[in-house]
Design a protein that fits this description.
With 292 residues, the protein is of the alpha/beta class. It has one domain: Alpha-Beta Barrel (TIM Barrel). Helix content is 36%, strand content 14%. The protein has eleven helices and ten strands. The strands form two sheets. An eight-stranded mixed beta sheet has the order 1-2-5-6-7-8-9-10. The protein has a two-stranded parallel ribbon with strand order 3-4.
């Protein structure tokens, strides 16, 4: 493997290996109708995930709680930014209802950043976990949390709800944080992942990175080593895709072969599972990576 990811101008069109199934089909339409009828949000739609066609046709989705307006303005994310919505305390029940209607036995829940709230929205994560388990006994729940501005008190709330997997994405390398993750700090993200393990050592933790924003291979490997040294168990690596011309540009399309090499390197570092590929996202094949 080369020592650096070479920075080159992006191609005018996506490579063939970045093609994803179109969002269509009977299951897709049924799930969209269900989500709309329950007035729920999914990161699949709000973040313009390229896998929405594949996942929804397999009747899986990642629920996004606490509204669909984020208090941060990250340069990579398609989720709407602005003044946050009022917290809807009936939302956990509706998420559970949707998960039951979809026949899910493994549910992934994420949220927008809610820096307007003292607990960052931790309370609603806990309520959603409880609602899902009450509605679907035995169902496993993975949560993809924001950084809660580093609050250990907020982390205690979600850890006490005993999620089956706790995911928090590191997203990119430290050098690019000011461009990519406005309002976030690399050390803070590492801290909340480590804190989760210190409180609940048996709970798997998970994190992920986007590639193609100008990082070098050495930087990626350094982040992977940092995650392992903070006891992260599961890792996702995927290609950054620009949601609109207003977002950060793609510096490079990383070919599948390099993702395979990074997966191999991650397993050698001791990650329990590494999901790596151009179309991989945080919750892609989440149940399989968690050892369902």
């Amino acid at each position: 493997m080369e020592s650096v990811l070479v920075t080159i101008a992006p191609r005018t069109a996506r490579p063939d290996w970045l093609r994803a199934p179109a969002p269509a089909g009977e299951n897709y339409r049924e799930l969209k109708a269900l989500i709309d009828s329950l007035k729920l949000h999914t990161v699949c739609e709000s973040a313009a995930c390229p896998n929405v066609g594949e996942c929804w046709n397999h009747r899986t989705a990642t629920f996004m709680i606490l509204g669909n307006v984020c208090t941060r303005r990250c340069g990579f994310c398609a989720v709407q930014k602005g003044a946050p919505l009022t917290v809807d305390y009936d939302e956990p029940r509706r998420v559970a209802e949707a998960a039951a209607a979809m026949g899910l036995r493994y549910v992934v829940v994420t949220s927008v950043n809610r820096d307007d709230r003292k607990d960052g929205g931790a309370e609603l994560f806990a309520l959603t976990i409880a609602a899902i388990r009450e509605r679907i006994p035995g169902c496993r729940v993975e949560i993809l949390i924001p950084d809660f501005q580093g609050s250990h008190a907020a982390m205690d709330i979600v850890i006490a709800a005993a999620p089956d997997v706790l995911n928090h994405n590191i997203e990119t390398v430290p050098r690019l944080y000011r461009q990519v993750r406005l309002g976030a700090r690399y050390e803070r993200s590492l801290d909340i992942l480590a804190y989760s393990k210190s409180v609940s050592s048996g709970m798997p933790t998970k994190s992920g990175l986007m590639l193609g924003l100008g990082e070098t291979l050495d930087e990626v490997l350094a982040v992977m080593r940092d995650l392992r040294s903070h006891h992260v168990d599961l890792l996702t690596l995927g290609q950054y895709l620009r949601p609109s011309p207003k977002h950060l540009p793609i510096i490079r399309y990383v070919p599948p072969e390099e993702f395979k090499e990074l997966r191999r390197a991650g397993l050698e570092m001791g990650f329990r599972h590494v999901e790596a590929g151009p179309l991989v996202r945080s919750s892609y094949h989440a149940a399989d990576s968690a050892g369902r």
